[in-house]
């Protein structure tokens, strides 16, 4: 007989299960410090150490999986293949939050849902992943480092007495390297959804890229480029949304004014760009907030305006006529 008020595992939803993290710290807070660089490393050292790091990380994952065999973990894993859309996403999220370092494959699978063909899964997964990356996975103070940028030559010289530290460094370095690749794939997936024919999907993709750009420096160059490119979207609503997002970006990060201006300039003078896209670009630039502290930005802005005016004269584009017919957007 069941105890009153008690549920079987089959009656429990993922939202009712709390992750059981091994530590309340984020993964990067326990990361060991890099040793001092002893000089340049060869390509052979890179290949050897990365393979060793892969094996160390695999062993770490296997050890983690062998220890985490409680009912909640097993039930969540079963939901990954048998549950509803919300169950699957919740189960993915809880496993990743519990231990990001040992759940890279789970993270890859969750990103795999961010496809136009996935429809409902795509939209739900996008929002979840944005929050997951910003709150639990990405390092807030710096960009992720690829494996080849580590002081590999110093690690190669470590003696057997510090093999434990050496192994820990390899595991962390490999994890961060793979995490950087995975996050890059997520940004690419978001950009692909941003080119969907369904306006609501494009809107969600732009919003997701904007949140990532404002929340963390990782992949900021690509994210900014993808967002600016959407100024050329045939949908008036999406172009207006991009202008709003860029305005909010500069409000939160005013030191990015010049970077954004440079990106808009490249977009404005791109070959085969539509007049509508140029129009929306100018709409955004006209709303730049300038001050005595941003004199260089103001100078650059004037240069862009004059260069564009010369281009219009050269191509005989009646910019003011086009502007008058597109006053409301």
Automatic annotation (TrEMBL):
Condensin complex subunit 1 C-terminal domain location: 183-302
Feature: compositional bias, Basic and acidic residues: 22-36
Domain of life: Eukaryota
GO cellular component: nucleus
InterPro entries listed in its UniProt record: ARM-type_fold, CEBPZ/Mak21-like, Cnd1_C
SUPFAM superfamilies xref list: ARM repeat
Chain residue ranges for the region called Disordered: 1-41
The name this protein goes by in its record: Condensin complex subunit 1 C-terminal domain-containing protein
Organism this protein belongs to: Acanthoscelides obtectus (Bean weevil)
